[in-house]
Each structure stands twice: as C-alpha cells, then as structure tokens.
Amino acid sequence: DGSQERIWSLAVYTVNGTARLYAGQGVDTGDGDVLVYDGTSWGTSYDGSQEGIYSLAVYTVNGTARLYAGQGESVGDGDVLVYDGTSWGTSYDGSNGRIQAFAVYDGKLYAGQFGSTGGGGDVLVFNGTGWGTSYDGSQEDIHSLAVYNGKLYAGQGLHAGDGDVLVLYAGDIV
Fold it and tell me: Distance between CA atoms of 65 and 63, rounded to whole angstroms?
C-alpha cells in the first residue's frame, strides 16, 4: 500500500543467492525511488531525486548480474542507474527526458528513451562497457521494447498517427 501515485516497473534481482522484487515508482520531483521487497516487508533501495523510475532490467556482464533503472522526466534527466547489490551509481548520464523501457537482446542491454521533441525517441545500446545509439528516432518517444523471434521490437509514438512498432535486427531497422 504505497504512498506514490504509480509503480512504473518491476524486476526480480538476485543478490548473494537471495531473490528480491524491485519496484520503480514516482511522479513528482523526488519521488523517483526504487523499492525492494524481500518476501516479508518493503524498503527503499534507492532514494531518488528525479520524478520517476520508469523501467527496470537485470543485465549480466562477464557472469555478474546488475540491476538497471531508467529514470527522469525533464530534458537532461533521462539517466540509467545501475545497482551492483551494494550501491547505486550512474551508468548513463542522459540528455533526454527519461528512459522508459529496457530489453536484453543479442548480449546487449537496450534502452528506449523519451525526448520532449521529435527525434528524441531513440534506442540506446549498452555493450557492457559503454553506451551508444542503436536507433536515432524521428518520433518523441520509445515506450516499449521486446524480443520476439530473434528480433528486437520497439514501440514508439506520442501523438495521433505516431504509434508504430519498429523491428530492429542486429542493431539495424528492418
């Protein structure tokens, strides 16, 4: 029974052999927290300063799993945070509004971002060491990412007529 308006995302992350449920929440400035449930009670894993944690994903590099959180709201707030089981840090310091979706595809972590103007809806890619742009979008928003039949799909759009599903294959649009 939370005090915030929205829980945007959920993910299960295992630390030292113990799985826990993580929840990204928030709407207003300072509400963007990551909550953690151990099966008995809820606590705060990350006490954020942004408006929301919109996406969560677990991504493994060299046998080590980490929890990634997409945050933000306004221009320059769209960062990717990373949790190693002990502490939170910044994996990607974004210039757009928010990170709305994650998907693991072809051994990489993909992130869909929101920009406040046309062209801000990009798909970012993390190869385990650095971030780059996989898709430089023409719309404002990438809302969702999913892997299906060996391809990465991205749901985009913000206004009437913008709603498209893009197919990315090996980093290229098909």
Answer: 7
Q: Is 125 helix (H, G, I), strand (E, B) or coil?
A: strand
Contact between residue 154 and residue 169 where contact means Cβ atoms under 8 Å apart: no
The residue ranges of DSSP E strands in 1-86, in sequence order, are 7-15, 18-25, 34-37, 42-46, 52-61, 64-72, 80-83
User: What residues contact 51, with CB distance under 8 A and at least 6 apart?
Assistant: 26, 27, 28, 29, 30, 31, 32, 72, 73, 74, 77
Token pair, residue 69, equals 């959180």
**What strands, in cross-sheet order, belong to the sheet with 42-46?**
7-15, 18-25, 34-37, 42-46
Distances from the Cα of 71 to the Cα of 31, 48, 55, 168, angstroms:
11, 9, 7, 23
Alpha-carbon span 157 to 163, nearest angstrom: 4
The identity of residue 129, as a single letter, is T
Angle value at C-alpha 113, between 35 and 44, nearest 5 degrees: 10
Tens digits of per-residue pLDDT, 119-147?
A: 667 899 999 999 998 887 777 788 899 99
pLDDT in tens, 49-61: 888 899 999 999 9
